[in-house]
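B., you asked whether I could sanity-check this one before it goes into the benchmark set. Here's the sequence:
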Amino acid sequence: MKKFLLILFVVTGVLQSFSFETGSTGGDGNEYQVKAMFVFNFTKYVEWPDGRSANVFTVGVIGESEIIEHLERIASQKKIGEKRIAIKLLSPDSDEYCDIVIISKTHLNKLDQVEKRYAGKGVLIISDESPRSAAINLVTRDNKIRFEINQSLAKAGGVKISSQLLSLAVEVH
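And here's what the prediction gave me:
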């Protein structure tokens, strides 16, 4: 019985961390705060190749987005493993290495170009409300922030997504 309760507690905690409602009173700031928390939760369930920067985990954002402010706030308070977190604003043509690259809504037309540039380099590409998914696509469904996963695009980027995260996605390709 104790084992069952422990498992129930862990599963409930994981599900809660990946299911946030976007209320009509919260505005876009709340939406992007939730999306930023998703991004950092994803890092717990993604495996990057060995040999990348030893002390910095870099999240790059292509295009202006309110998510940057929320990512910076989280980055100032947390680490990923033993690595400090750096947030960078990238141009669509940048080839600077980042562990995660987020394509904002304003630059979704650059998604194919970015995926080709980072193919096989161990980069997780996340899109924001894209009609064509990246490795992970943040979406709003039934007033809740959710995510879709495209496993083949994750593999093409050189990262591996855990089965735990796959089971929480609203759609897996």
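One thing to flag: The chain has six helices and ten strands. Otherwise nothing jumped out at me.
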